Amino acid sequence: MLNFELYNPVNLVFGKGQTSKLSKLIPADAKVLLAYGGGSIFNNGVHAQVTDALKGYDITEFGGIEPNPRYETVMKAVEIVREKKLDFILAVGGGSVIDGVKFISAAVKFDGDPIDILQKRIRIEGNTVPFGTVLTLPATGSEMNSGSVITINSTQEKLSFGGPAVFPKFSICDPTVVASLPKRQVQNGVIDAFTHVMEQYLTYPHDAMLQDRIAEGILQTLIEIGPDVAETPADYKLASNFMWCCTMALNGLIQKGVPTDWATHMIGHELTALYEIDHARTLAIIAPNLYRVLFETKKEKLAQYGCRVWNITESDTDKAAKQAIEKTVDFFKTMGMPEKISEYTADYGNTADFIVKRFEERGWKAMGERGNITPDKVREIVEMSY
Ligand code: NZQ
Ligand code: ZN
Questions:
Q1: Where would I find the Fe-containing alcohol dehydrogenase-like C-terminal domain in this sequence (predicted)?
Q2: Residues whose beta carbon lies within 6 Å of some atom of ligand 1
């Protein structure tokens, strides 16, 4: 097992009706920015729950944080927080609102041009505005991690940043919010969480036994509940297990002491930046092709995954690994994921050139757990995805 430090200060408040605890979690004299997205919280009652729980607080609202949150949008909130001297931020939404709030939190007191946080990937160690979240969409794990992904409109870049100072102070995770989600978003959430586990698991055999078993447990649970929660999101048993799987998939736990990959995400972010394909849907396109291209170095773990998660009984490693990829593709299809970039855009011809050039400019020439995902391999993966 590799050495590790596990630091996660998020107070995760999980379950029905937990939003009513907000006033215990935010200081009574705080001047709060309440940040949200395109307005779903007005339709499903979450806005009313939050404002009821925060009666008497000094609240300024900031709406309009879009899916794949834009730097240009969140900078408007940064100005408001500075001008009004607000000292707490509450994110009410999915991964996009939470990520947007992480950026606002880091940018308000940032010494320099906040765009550098993204373009120079500055690690945020302190001097942030404290924030909490009310999660409305299980998917990203952003409610319990210190990462964020922001898109810069002017350069069409989707970039991540993070650091120990951008963990939420608390996150309220009430699974009843799942009931109002469109099917597409539930499907996205299942596949995003599934791929988060795979990025931290599907590498090579190692001796971190517990991490593997936890990862496999999350994958099996997502496989078990995924199709049903997409059909009946109001079922509390399904919704609560879905929500907890998503948090556990990317709260840092299964990543400790193990090699990780993340190349599927890096390539996927470019597809969103280019074509605005939903985050999870980019992963469903790329992941199987990445496993195919990296077959030789991933096949042993693929076979383990096939055997333990999909109950494949084949004893030949190559055959079991291939079957495991096909099982994954079938599951993605069951979850409504298209397989190809061409199913989203007719104008995909230069995608591989564009992504390879970008990665080379950024110096990303050796991705993956073994550093063997070279620009040539990225090209092959993307071209296979057309
Ligand atoms: O904006 P509103 O009106 O709220 O509508 C949202 C949005 O249109 C809607 N929605 C959210 N909760 C709802 C709801 N509709 C009805 N009922 C509810 N309860 O869903 C739509 C999508 O929301 P969004 O927040 O964009 O989705 P998601 O949570 O999947 O977040 C995606 C973003 O997170 C990033 C992605 O790259 C993408 O930008 N990620 C963040 C990560 C992190 N911070 O750790 C890791 C991930 O890998 C990912 O990269
Ligand atoms: Zn993701």
A1: 189-356
A2: 37-41, 44, 67-68, 93-97, 99, 136-137, 139-142, 145, 147-149, 177, 180-181, 185, 188, 192, 250, 265, 279
pLDDT digits (tens, 9 = 90+) for 174-211: 999 999 999 999 999 999 999 999 999 999 999 999 99
Evaluate whether the domain defined by 11-177 bears CATH number 3.40.50.1970.
Answer: yes
User: How far is the C-alpha of 117 from the C-alpha of 258, rounded, in Å?
Assistant: 27
CA of 298 to the centre of ligand 2 (A): 20
Q: Which atom of ligand 1 is nearest to the CA of 151?
A: 39
CATH homologous superfamily for 181-384?
Dehydroquinate synthase-like - alpha domain (1.20.1090.10)
What secondary structure does DSSP assign to 52-102, as a single string? HHTTTSEEEEE--PPSS-BHHHHHHHHHHHHHHT--EEEEEESHHHHHHHH
pTM, entire model: 0.98
CB 50 within 8 A of CB 22: yes
